[in-house]
Amino acid sequence: MTVKSGDGVALRENVGWVALVGGGPGAADLITVRGLNLLRRADVVVVDRLAPRELLDGLRSEVEIVDAGKGPHGHNLSQSEINELLVDRALRGLRVVRLKGGDPFLFGRGGEEALACAAAGVPCEVVPGVTSAVGVPALAGIPVTHRGVTQDLAVVSGHVDPSHPGSTSNWDALASGPGTVVVLMGVGALDKISHELVKRGRPAATPVAVIQAGATARQRVVTGTLADIAAAAEAAGVRSPAVIVIGDVVALRDEIGTYRVPD
Q1: How far apart are CA 102 and CA 242, in angstroms?
Q2: In what residue span(s) does the Tetrapyrrole methylase domain sit (predicted)?
Q3: For residue range 117-150, what is the model confidence (pLDDT) as tens digits?
Q4: pLDDT at residue 241 above 80?
Q5: Whole-number Å distance between alpha carbons of 44 and 51
Q6: Cβ pair 101, 128 in contact under 8 A
């Protein structure tokens, strides 16, 4: 038997639920209150590589923890396997939390998982998280928008570099506009991204920051310009995960700083 949710999705009776929870940009204490409450109620937690692992420490001993481990160079489970797992556990009557880094609907494939749940009649809640595209720059002293500097923000994936035929981002528009560009999953293509933006019209002197391991105790920031940031990041040994911020707002970092109120 099925029932209808408020938005018309057909749901099964006597099943559990799935919650797609954004764990935030890195630190465990940046998860939302709603996300933490659902995590504490979970029977099953399916966790991503970049989700805050410290959040798992306080779970009940009987909770099933599944490491999805998705990353840029491989994964433990395919996306279809993850979808099947979420649906299977919920259909058994279990409460399932899919714990992700950042926000589940920003390059997190949360939409695919929500659609899989909807197709199976499984109740699915989306719990937004602080995206690393905004949260990590903020913790590095960089506002992605700032009055008098820019009102525009573009967030793009750097997983496919801009010179590749498979890139679907409008790099011409990103190069011609004055706004902030935040690139996720792009540290491996930083040299190509910088080169393409300059080639397509962005000034070579545009400030750039690369923030590695943002919102963690290991956070570090390398700054430069489009002309030299790739060399600077390579010299510093920057590795994934890292957030790239391109635009004049980067220059505000020295004035704003990164003060943290003591715990």
Answers
A1: 13
A2: 18-229
A3: 999 999 999 999 999 999 999 999 999 999 999 9
A4: yes
A5: 15
A6: no
| Nearest-angstrom CA–CA distance, 152 and 147 | 10
> Would you name the residues annotated as active-site residues?
48, 70, 185
* Average per-residue pLDDT for the chain: 93
Using the Cα atoms of residue 38, residue 39, residue 43 and residue 48 in order, give the sign of their dihedral.
positive
CA dist., res. 4 & res. 2, Å (int): 7
Q: Say yes or no to pLDDT of 71 above 70.
A: no
DSSP the chain: -EEE-TTS-EEESS--EEEEEE-BSS-GGGS-HHHHHHHHH-SEEEE-TTS-GGGGTTS-TT-EEEE---BTTB-SS-HHHHHHHHHHHHHTT-EEEEEESB-TTSSS-HHHHHHHHHHHT--EEEE----HHHHHHHHTT--SSBTTTBS-EEEEE-SS-TTSTT--S-HHHHHHS-SEEEEES-GGGHHHHHHHHHHTT--TT-EEEEEETTTSTT-EEEEEETTTHHHHHHHTT--SSEEEEESGGGGGHHHH-------
Single-letter amino acid code for the residue at 111: G
Identity of the amino acid at 29 = D
- Count other C-beta atoms under 10 Å from residue 17's C-beta: 19
CB 5, CB 123: distance < 8 Å: yes
For residues 225-245, give the mean pLDDT: 98
pLDDT band of residue 11 (cuts 50, 70, 90) is low
Instruction: Evaluate whether 233 touches 187 at the Cβ level (below 8 Å).
Output: yes
Q: Are 174 and 63 in contact, with CB atoms under 8 Å apart?
A: no
At 118, phi and psi to the nearest 5?
Answer: -60, -40
